[in-house]
Design a protein that fits this description.
Blueprint: H1 22-29, H2 36-48, H3 110-128, H4 136-148, H5 152-164, H6 172-184, H7 188-200, H8 208-220, H9 224-234, H10 241-257, H11 260-272, H12 280-292, H13 296-308, H14 312-324, H15 328-340, H16 349-359, H17 365-377, H18 385-398, H19 401-413, H20 421-433, H21 440-447, H22 457-470, H23 475-487, H24 490-497, H25 501-511
Helix pairs in contact: 1-2, 2-5, 3-4, 4-5, 5-6, 6-7, 7-8, 8-9, 9-10, 11-12, 11-13, 12-13, 13-14, 14-15, 15-16, 16-17, 17-18, 19-20, 21-22, 22-23, 22-24, 22-25
Length: 517
Amino acid sequence: MTLGRLTRTALPFVLTALSLSAAAQQAETTPASAPEHEIKENVVATAKDDSSFSQVSPEEKTAVELRSSTEGAGSSVEKAGPQEEKGHKLPEADHSHDESVKSTIVQISEEDQKKINDLIRQAEVYLYGDGVQVNLQKAAELYNAAGDLGSPKAKLRLSTMYRQGQGVQKDLNHAFELVMEAANQDFAPAQSALSSYFRTGIGVNKDIEQADYWLEKAAENGHTRSKVLFSSILERDVSNPASLEKARRFTEEVKNEASPQEIYSIGYSYANGFGLPKDLKKAMEWARLGADKGEVNSIYLLGDCYWREKNIAEASVWFEKAAEKGLRAAQLQTGRLYRDGAPGVQKNLGKAVKWLEIAYPSGDKNDLFSLVVMRATGPKAVRNLAKGQEWLDRYIPEATVEELNEQGEKFWNGNGVRRNFNLGGALCLAALKKGDRGNLCGFAEKLGTKNWGKADFVTSYSLLNQCVIDHPENEQMKRAFDALQERMSAKQVEDAQELDPTDALNDYLAKNIPQLN
């Protein structure tokens, strides 16, 4: 079905918007060839407000993910990345602008407004896949119908779909016409979006004067992002008191009127250069404002800002505050800091275990393995073999056989760690049970070690006997075999000599699982 163009009257020269924040970030993670169910999030994010950062959340961000201390403070600690959140949260980008806005061109009757609201609700069902299969074409048709009735919000969202070619054939000219109409209906999000197009020169010649004009109009109409961005532009004109005063007014309005979530988003945008100039000092100012209001994301962001300044001690204070409020990324980061220690942060394995266990399943398999180690080999205050076994059972499926063997040998031999036969043997056994046979002869030697709870002299003898035959040049293996034989009774040797080595191994693997005790 081909969408008809919206009915319209002649309008002055303006154009559609390019998202400088949400769309730009989504474009990096959404391939052009992505299937419809994947690209829908891109459409929705940009359709909300074509240039808004007002709903940035830590779950949507990757820029500060897993920053290692070699980038930050020279410690072995990695900075925790944002946590994942189930579902797809897509709140309105600017709650201060809805369909109640009066048009300077189209007067919308109460009856038509009800129709518009219903059409947009239906469009969002197909856009989000809310109980139905995602259908971007159907969503575009419904937005088109709402736009024909005069809805500037529908026009703005539909323009995004035309600009990106999602649900409709890509058409920058028509996208331009749609945002042109919405902006001239005094719809602030569209005016902000229009400013972005002029500023970037997408679909039109770059025109900074026009960009600033439309940005100021959006700001005067109460658009949060535009107030902040326009203030940052005005502040450059340090010799103009009027500009500085207007910048101060806009900034104070936002500080007094913006929601805690919006305040966080402004701070995050300054910290990472998303839609605002990168400015760590301003990021900290906004983050502290949000933190003072108890906004957990702002608390975490403030910690991140201190981290970037390499003030790890102060960063850790704010990370732990955010952790106590339940932010999983902060819990993970706090656990890592207490586990590894850092400048100004003393190691504390008790707190490390606490926060890493709470943070699970956030983090990576190294975090998971560290829980195994602390629970299995740590001081009495944190040692708990039952808990350690739980973490080992989670770690083994995620680890490669190479990682299992490497860590197994390390703990078996005490290379840079506290020697622990049960942990080392369990890891090597896990590698064998995953099908690895590259370290079979080494494992056979371990089975002959009386200090390991899973030792089995008979199986060890059967396997080592074959290893000596296969590797006659290996003198260490011969000595291990001879030493084993001396420790065995005559009956054990007799039983072992009657065993086929393959049968002996399979029988052992069938009867034993990786255990810490």
